[in-house]
Amino acid sequence: MAQAIDSLTLDLAGKSLDALWERSNVISNNIANSDTANYKEKSVSFENELSSALGDGSLTQSELNGITPQVVTNQGSMDANGNSVDVDSQMVELTRNQLQYTYMSKAAASSLDMLRNAASEGRN
User: Fold this and answer.
1) How far apart are CA 50 and CA 122, in angstroms?
2) 74 CA to centre of own chain
3) Could you give the CA distance from residue 60 to residue 43 in angstroms, rounded to a whole number?
4) HEC states along the chain?
5) pLDDT per position as a tens digit, 17-37
6) Region label for 45, one of left (φ > 0), alpha (ψ between -120 and 50) or beta (otherwise)
7) ∠ CA 97-16-29 to the nearest 5 degrees?
8) Do the Cβ atoms of 82 and 16 come closer than 8 Å?
9) CA of 75: how far to CAs of 35, 43, 72, 84, 85, in Å?
10) Residues 103, 17: contact at Cβ < 8 Å?
11) Which residues make beta-bridge pairs with 122?
12) Tell me: the pLDDT tens digits for 61-106?
C-alpha cells in the first residue's frame, strides 16, 4: 500500500509540474501578444479540478489520470485594439507561477530522495 501512495504522490507532483509548465507557456504567450490586435488573454485551469478530486481525501490513480490542465480564453476588458492582456498582472502571475514550480520541483525531489534512501536502507 505504501508503494501505491508514494507512486500516487509522485504522479500528483508530476501532474502539478506539468500544469505549472503549461501555465508558464501560456503567460509568456500572453505577454508576447500584449500588443497584438484582438488577442484574448488565456489562462490555465487546473487547481479547481484537482481540488474537487482531492475533496473527499480518496484520490485514485484513475481520477488523477483524468485531470489535465486546460487552456481557457478569458473574457476580460479590452483596450482600443481589442486586446485583453494586462501585462502587469501577467508579470505577477508569471512570478507566482515560477515560485510554485520551484517549490513543487523541490518537493518532488525530496520525495524521490526519501524513496532512494529507503531503497538503499539508509546507505549512501
Assistant:
1) 34
2) 18
3) 27
4) CHHHHHHHHHHHHHHHHHHHHHHHHHHHHHHHCCCCCCCCCEEEECHHHHHHHHCCCCCCHHHHHCCCCEEEECCCCCCCCCCCCCHHHHHHHHHHHHHHHHHHHHHHHHHHHHHHHHHCCCCC
5) 999 999 999 999 999 999 999
6) beta
7) 45
8) no
9) 17, 11, 10, 8, 10
10) no
11) none
12) 888 888 999 999 998 788 888 899 999 999 999 999 999 999 999 9
What phi and psi values does residue 84 have, to the nearest 5 degrees?
A: -115, 15
Cα–Cα distance measured from residue 50 to residue 63, given in angstroms and rounded to the nearest whole number: 9
Between CA 113 and CA 102 the distance in angstroms is 16
- Planar angle of CA 10, 49, 2, nearest 5 degrees: 25
User: What is the pairing mode between strands 42-45 and 70-73?
Assistant: antiparallel
